[in-house]
Design a protein that fits this description.
- By secondary structure, the chain is an all-alpha fold.
- It folds into 2 domains: about 150 residues; about 90 residues, no CATH class.
- Helix content is about 55%, strand content about 0%.
- The chain has a two-stranded antiparallel sheet with strand order 1-2.
- Helix 3 packs antiparallel against helix 12 and helix 6 packs across helix 7.
């Protein structure tokens, strides 16, 4: 199992299409280092961060973001040879699935999701993304998977329902934490985004990772907690996603 500084590194939950397109782009020329200056023009900060995390987990770049020999081989390979390299990458990176009684050819979707959760203690939404990436990668690697898994993944919507799911998670957070101000107590001269800030619960570092993620996924709020290196990789990635949203809307200009 891949670890970083003594902690488990999150399995890929970036879109597999993003990963696949990136590998195809590398066919045009492999840089000495894969950093933001290389991918920043084609990927958002959150997608780029998730992609970099995926490349490290798969052993395709090292801690300094330098391409490994395995990545060089993958980029140069074609056809059956590329499939074989992908199979090797998948077997090495997702070796935890080979432990215990898990059988990828007969397991159900729920069992696969539980395997990810038990190995990495992921939230439900992240587990789904990890499973989806793994299934796509394993399929490209020619690895046999249970039809109970592949049929379920194919039936999953790619983006439909994402916003409603975020609203449900944010509703859960709001139930657990009291909003201190009533609407009548907010001065009328405040701008609409300042009003939202006044109604938004203050980020609390003592919250569980699940609650922190729910807070960060509520992109309609207008402030972020100070980034902390002590957070889990999962919370760090959500922080970058939320920061990207603020940049897209231009609210950072109002921040001090």
């Amino acid at each position: 199992m891949v670890k970083d500084s003594g902690r488990k590194r999150l399995p890929p939950y970036v879109s597999y299409r993003t990963f696949y397109n990136f590998i195809e782009r590398l066919e045009q020329g492999l840089p000495a280092r894969i950093d933001r200056s290389y991918w920043g023009g084609s990927l958002s900060g959150s997608n780029g961060t998730q992609l970099m995390s995926a490349l490290r987990f798969l052993g395709l770049i090292d801690a300094s973001s330098t391409p490994t020999n395995q990545l060089r081989q993958l980029v140069l390979a074609r056809g059956v040879q590329r499939t074989e390299i992908l199979r090797q990458i998948t077997s090495e990176a997702f070796g935890f699935l080979l432990q215990g009684s898990f059988d990828s050819q007969t397991a159900t979707y729920a069992q696969l999701k539980e395997a990810f959760h038990n190995a990495f203690e992921l939230t439900d939404s992240v587990s789904r993304k990890c499973v989806k990436f793994f299934v796509a990668l394993a399929s490209n690697a020619g690895m046999p998977l249970s039809p109970f898994i592949t049929k379920r993944v194919r039936s999953m919507p790619s983006s439909t329902g994402t916003k409603s799911a975020m609203k449900r998670r944010w509703t859960k957070v709001k139930r657990n934490y009291q909003v201190l101000q009533n609407l009548e107590e907010i001065p009328s001269e405040m701008s609409w985004h300042e009003m939202l800030l006044a109604k938004f619960p203050t980020f609390d570092p003592s919250w569980s990772d699940e609650v922190k993620l729910g807070w960060l996924e509520a992109f309609d709020r207008l402030k972020l907690p100070t980034f902390s290196l002590t957070w889990s990789d999962e919370v760090k990635l959500k922080w970058f996603e939320a920061f990207d949203k603020l940049l897209e809307r231009g609210f950072h200009k109002d921040k001090k």
